[in-house]
Amino acid sequence: MRVLVPLLALLAATTALATDSARSRMETFSKGLHSVTASFSQSVTDANGHRGDESRGTLALEAPRQFRWETSAPYQQTIVADGAKVWVYEPDLQQVSVRNQSSEEAHSPLTVLTDLSQLDRQFTPGEAGERDGLTWLRLASKAKEPEFEYAELGFDAGTLQRMRFKDQLGNTTEIRFGDWKRNPALPTSTFKFVPPKGVDVVGDVKPDAEVFPVKD
Questions:
Q1: pLDDT tens-place string over residues 47-65
Q2: 3-state DSSP percent of the chain in helix, strand and coil, to 5
Q3: Out of 49, 101, 134, 180, which residue is the most buried by the measure of CB atoms under 10 Å away?
């Protein structure tokens, strides 16, 4: 009995650690999540260790394939994925670029938050340990020509706090999240984009596919 009790305690502790993995935290965060909004701050460090200016903005996601990423400072940029196309609007350049979403969404780990079925389909996930008080999940894209070497998602006890990814040129992007709102009622205009008059549109513009968010 003296030996059995410590062994049972050790087994219980090991089981607790196993269930409190980065993947389990992600699954807990994403469970029942159909739409979400948040604020973000983002910085990029190049391969030589030089860190650029921090940018800030907001994001919105809705299952199955829609998202909006809006940078407000120190410059303005809007990225909208409507389910068929990805639109990138840069007011300073008076330009909009558009491309098929199917070729882009495999490179966006954030889309997995509202569609966990894509996690193993688009990525090879792995535990990346503890760092900065967070538990990290590392994702390697299964795309033939991935845009990043890896991405890491850092979770606290219940929320995605940070995301880091390293691109093929050695640049590292770090994003910090805050003010998460789960399953807000988002207007359909959130994920619709119409190029403003007078701007240059680069890319193949065709009628958007009709997209229906996942229902409960």
A1: 999 999 999 999 999 988 8
A2: 25, 45, 35
A3: 101
